[in-house]
What we know:
Two copies of one chain form a homodimer. By secondary structure, chain A is α+β, with helices and mostly antiparallel strands. Chain A has helices at residues 31-34, 37-49, 103-116; strands spanning 18-26, 54-61, 67-73, 76-83, 88-96, 121-128.
Amino acid sequence: MQTLPxxxxxxxxxxxxxxxxxxxxxxxxxxxxxxxxxxxxxxxxQIELNSLTALGEVFHNFENGGYTGVICLTESHLAIHxxxxxxxxxxxxxxxxYRKSNDEIARSIIKHTIExxxxxxxxxxxxxx
Amino acid sequence: MQTLPxxxxxxxxxxxxxxxxxxxxxxxxxxxxxxxxxxxxxxxxQIELNSLTALGEVFHNFENGGYTGVICLTESHLAIHxxxxxxxxxxxxxxxxYRKSNDEIARSIIKHTIExxxxxxxxxxxxxx
Lengths: 129, 129
């Protein structure tokens, strides 16, 4: 039996571009949730470490504390929003697999971000999109 | 029995910032998936129509067709990625409810984007984060 190359087995119906992980990080010390400078540096380090490609970003600190940030990647995007008054972060890591599987990289970025915030209470959901 | 004001019933444990809808739109005519100019105008019209506040954006057309775009909002973010070769779009609409409930606005933006692409085959998942 001949083995078909993988590309012949990808149909319009079955193509799934990649893994999207949604995380809610809870009961975090509010200090690193007030200003984006630390997490921005951390996320760009993760991008470099994992050979991802950033296309651009938006980061914004809110007047009363808390920030929102999105980094657009050729592989899709990272997004973070914080509520220091509730010790809460929502984090999205969505990496497509155009050239290679990035699933383990997505999980690694989530894991290291949880460690960055020294967070012990979190929810994770994984979606193959 | 006295009715407590809503704010007294929100604890650190129970606070859920808003609704995130993940959509996969399939079998779309590839033409509007190649260049972001049409969808960018459409999304900013939705933002204005629904009195949301944009903080910034990243849009990028890929050399071989297809684009990626993220608009950062005070209410969280919109994100779109396209694969014209597969007639595929993944769309995220995540709106927090800091000042008022934006759940119906999130659903309305999804609905109108599906109509924009004249798409009849799609998956939607809703998450209260």
